[in-house]
């Protein structure tokens, strides 16, 4: 089983952004030193959730120069907010800079506030995402001698020659759909790509039995992947990166200490969420941008059971064995959840150290 670090910190004020970037870099370098497999970044805008995620590809390219053996992933790129040409170009560049160690999570986005900043209505996000992915596939396949590709969707253009640079390998970098919608699971399976495996079923985002949802979505994806006729090498690679995500991972020497500290972490996280809620409400002032699902309070049993992994190293190992048995290949660990204060960073580094010394060896 692989273990990856998800950089998912927040700032509460603009003057905290500078230190956040410094701290995230040092945390990522520590993850590389300790033997984690990948660094994943989200794609967010305007609200203080991962300020560097306003251009995750730029930050990933900077880290890639310092961590040449590390894989880099995105969890996830909000496809409607990216022009297909720029989407493909930037992925190809980063594909070269990482020497093919790239995993591009894709989704339609979750936040109306971010959508309207790019002129996208939330209700149209799914359609635009599909348009953009179809356009991206055509652009990746285009040869210089082919007819021009016309883009007639939300994003428009006319590409005469080709995308430069070309991909690092014979094929484009691996995309990683979220295997919740049937079409997304099929896209991953048919292409031999990994997938994110959800731990809930909308409209309820959370619950006390996340494993049952993981089994359902993984089973559907796995069946389609095996039926797609790929080589053993492609199937093995896809499954090795098929990912179960935790928004908050926190380890301490004892379960009691971990529980006390994770409640402190989630309390600060919820304060940040509450601050952002007022702006989300403004974004949802018309029907075109109304959300259809809601995420519960972070300190509820449902939220913590779905999104958190915490405890002593021994307890965490026991919890993860069940996901290993299902067939999950990669555990994505949100280690910097919430505002990244000095104390929060110390907790994050504590988690990395304990995982590297006592959890990772149990799964290698």
UniProtKB/TrEMBL annotation:
SUPFAM superfamilies: Bacterial luciferase-like (SSF51679)
Pfam families for this protein: Bac_luciferase (PF00296)
Gene Ontology MF term list: monooxygenase activity; oxidoreductase activity, acting on paired donors, with incorporation or reduction of molecular oxygen
Key words, A-Z: Monooxygenase, Oxidoreductase
GO cellular component: cytosol
Luciferase-like domain sequence ranges: 1-328
Signal sequence range: none
PANTHER family to which the protein is assigned, alphabetical: BLR5498 PROTEIN (PTHR30137:SF8), LUCIFERASE-LIKE MONOOXYGENASE (PTHR30137)
Identification of the protein by name: LLM class flavin-dependent oxidoreductase
């Amino acid at each position: 089983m692989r273990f990856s670090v998800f950089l998912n910190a927040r700032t509460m004020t603009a003057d905290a952004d500078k230190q956040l970037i410094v701290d995230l870099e040092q945390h990522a370098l520590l993850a590389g030193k300790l033997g984690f497999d990948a660094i994943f970044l989200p794609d967010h805008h305007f609200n203080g959730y991962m300020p560097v995620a306003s251009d995750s590809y730029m930050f990933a390219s900077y880290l890639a120069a310092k961590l040449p053996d590390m894989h880099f992933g995105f969890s996830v790129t909000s496809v409607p907010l990216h022009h297909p040409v720029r989407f493909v170009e930037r992925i190809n560049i980063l594909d070269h800079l990482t020497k093919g160690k790239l995993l591009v999570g894709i989704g339609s986005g979750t936040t109306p506030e971010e959508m309207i900043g790019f002129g996208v209505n939330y209700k149209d996000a799914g359609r635009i995402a599909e348009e953009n992915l179809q356009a991206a596939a055509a652009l990746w396949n285009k040869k210089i001698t082919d007819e021009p590709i016309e883009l007639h969707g939300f994003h428009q253009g006319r590409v005469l020659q080709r995308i430069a640079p070309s991909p690092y390998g014979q094929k484009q970098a691996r995309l990683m759909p979220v295997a919740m919608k049937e079409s997304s699971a099929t896209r991953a399976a048919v292409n031999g790509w990994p997938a994110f495996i959800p731990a809930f079923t909308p409209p309820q985002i959370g619950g006390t039995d996340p494993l049952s949802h993981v089994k359902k979505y993984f089973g559907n994806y796995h069946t389609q992947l095996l039926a797609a006729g790929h080589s053993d090498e492609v199937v093995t690679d896809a499954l090795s990166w098929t990912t179960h995500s935790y928004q908050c991972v926190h380890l301490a020497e004892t379960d009691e200490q971990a529980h006390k500290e994770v409640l402190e972490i989630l309390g600060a996280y919820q304060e940040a969420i509450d601050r952002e809620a007022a702006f989300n409400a403004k974004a949802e002032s018309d029907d075109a941008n109304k959300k259809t699902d809601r995420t519960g309070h972070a300190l509820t049993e449902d939220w913590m059971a779905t999104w958190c992994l915490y405890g002593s190293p021994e307890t965490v190992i026991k919890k993860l064995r069940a996901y290993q048995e299902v067939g999950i290949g990669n555990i994505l660990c949100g280690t910097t959840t919430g505002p990244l204060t000095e104390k929060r960073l110390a907790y994050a580094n504590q988690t990395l150290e304990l995982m590297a010394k006592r959890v990772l060896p149990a799964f290698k």
